[in-house]
């Protein structure tokens, strides 16, 4: 398997999330003066570290299954002087037990649903039930969740699960969270710019690999294929159709 540069070298977050939006959701969580913060599917932990910087009395727990990302998260924590206030653990987030004062779940709700390989509709209800169980009333959740921005087209669904009902609209998502013990403080949607920046993190890895290796390298064909698959899937497929909602929620 060819070794590509790590995604965290090209992306700040492993989701379509601008600096401006990140600052906004961090401020929302920190305003509750949390003591215990959980990030499920934390990746390399950038968002959790920013919450801890903004909430000086908080300690954090980041859970993920990807040890490479967790190593990067622990290194970042130490570099930022947060090593004593945060723990990044390789654990299934389904095992997390609350209560936490603040939780973030961004692009990670598939944790509670069917395996993505099974190509089934996203199980919003399972995720929201599990997330609500982690918070007391008044606890805060930043929930970054997949939605349809526009009615799905065959080109958009083909590289995803191939289903028109894999996701719901923002309006339906708001109804769903309200039906699972949350009140909506704010509901936004990632912009196309945020999506382009996110997907470009992947294209950058392929581009740099191709620039660093001669065309006759034995792994060149595979990298070109992978790049072409991603470009067709996004630029020719779900761009502008697959969306990501950012909901600022309080448990009620
Ligand atoms: C799309 S990424 C989002 C990462 C991060 N929240 C961010 O926005 O930068 C989803 C993350 O969930 C993690 N993940 C998937 N299944 C998991 C599970 N059962 N328990 C914990 N983490 C899981 C993946 O390894 C991946 O890092």
SSE order and pairing:
Layout: H1 19-30, E1 36-40, H2 46-54, E2 59-64, H3 67-79, E3 86-90, E4 102-106, H4 124-133, E5 140-148, H5 154-157, H6 170-178, E6 182-189, H7 192-212, H8 220-238, E7 242-251
Parallel strand pairs: 1-2, 1-4, 2-3, 4-5
Antiparallel strand pairs: 5-7, 6-7
The structure holds S-adenosylmethionine (SAM).
Structure description:
This protein is of the alpha/beta class and 252 residues long. The protein has a single domain (13-154, 162-194, 243-251), classed as Rossmann fold (3-Layer(aba) Sandwich), CATH 3.40.50.150. The protein is built from 8 helices and 7 strands, in the order αβαβαββαβααβααβ. The chain has helices at 19-30, 46-54, 67-79, 124-133, 154-157, 170-178, 192-212, 220-238; strands at residues 36-40, 59-64, 86-90, 102-106, 140-148, 182-189, 242-251. The protein has a 7-stranded mixed beta sheet, with helices on both faces. The radius of gyration is 18 Å and the shape is globular. Residues 13-15, 41-43, 63-66, 69, 92-94, 106-108, 111 line the site of S-adenosylmethionine.
Give me some keywords for this one.
8 helices, Rossmann fold, alpha/beta, 252 residues
Q: State the total count of DSSP E strands.
A: 7
CATH architecture: 3-Layer(aba) Sandwich
CATH superfamily: Vaccinia Virus protein VP39
- Contiguous helical run count: 8
- How much helical structure, as a percent, in the residues? 25-40%
Main β-sheet, in a few words? 7 strands, mixed
CATH class reads Alpha Beta
Q: Outline, from the CA principal axes? A: globular
How far is the N terminus from the C terminus? 48 Å
């Amino acid at each position: 398997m060819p070794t590509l540069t790590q995604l965290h070298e090209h992306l700040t977050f492993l989701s379509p999330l601008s600096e401006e939006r990140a600052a906004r959701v961090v401020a929302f969580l920190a305003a509750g003066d949390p003591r215990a913060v959980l990030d499920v599917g934390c990746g390399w932990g950038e968002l959790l570290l920013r919450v801890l910087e903004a909430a000086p009395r908080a300690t954090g727990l980041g859970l993920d299954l990807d040890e490479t990302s967790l190593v990067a998260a622990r290194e970042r924590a130490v570099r930022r002087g947060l090593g004593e206030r945060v723990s990044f653990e390789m654990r299934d987030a389904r095992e997390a037990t609350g209560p936490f004062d603040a939780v973030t779940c961004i692009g990670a709700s598939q944790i509670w649903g069917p395996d993505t390989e099974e190509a089934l509709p996203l199980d919003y209800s399972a995720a929201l039930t599990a997330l609500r169980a982690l918070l007391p009333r008044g606890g805060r959740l930043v929930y970054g969740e997949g939605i349809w921005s526009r009615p799905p087209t065959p080109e958009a669904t083909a590289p995803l699960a191939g289903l028109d009902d894999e996701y719901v609209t923002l309006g339906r998502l708001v109804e769903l969270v309200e039906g699972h013990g949350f009140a909506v403080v704010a509901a936004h949607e990632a912009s196309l710019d945020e999506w382009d920046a996110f997907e470009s993190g992947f294209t950058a890895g392929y581009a740099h690999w191709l620039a660093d290796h001669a065309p006759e390298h034995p792994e060149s064909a595979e990298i070109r294929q992978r790049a072409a698959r991603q470009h067709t899937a996004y630029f020719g497929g779900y761009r502008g159709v697959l969306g990501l909602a950012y909901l600022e929620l309080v448990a009620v």
